[in-house]
Structure prediction request, 134 residues.
Amino acid sequence: MSKKLFALLVAAQAAHSVEEYRFRLYDVLAPARFISRLVSSDPARGFALANVALVTFGVWCYVARVRPEHPSTFRWMWFWVLLEAVNGTNHLLFALYTRRYFPGAWTAPLLLSVAVALGVTLARGREDRRFVRS
Prediction:
């Protein structure tokens, strides 16, 4: 179950990245603009490349760590749970604070709900943890 939820979490991040790009998060959030400009002098291009790298990293985590049940699987899944729970929560808080749409707010509930579902699954120990102890 957790492998499927992890894959869904990475897919949700991909959709979230598309929404952020489409609605130009890099123009309204200073940290996004900063990261974008670290990658490219064109903030749109830098933002796209940074998000492609993030999603690619998520796919790598799934293919190289989660799916084959690497000893570090549990840690990688928790890293992504925390990352995406914070990401989703922050987008919703920004939308509430500004009292208007904030880029990423439409897919933030998806990120948050999948992250929580994966976190609950991991915390309840529903998975065989033989690959977790290293």
In short: The chain has one domain: 2-131. The mean pLDDT is 94. The radius of gyration is 16 Å. The first helix runs from residue 2 to 22.
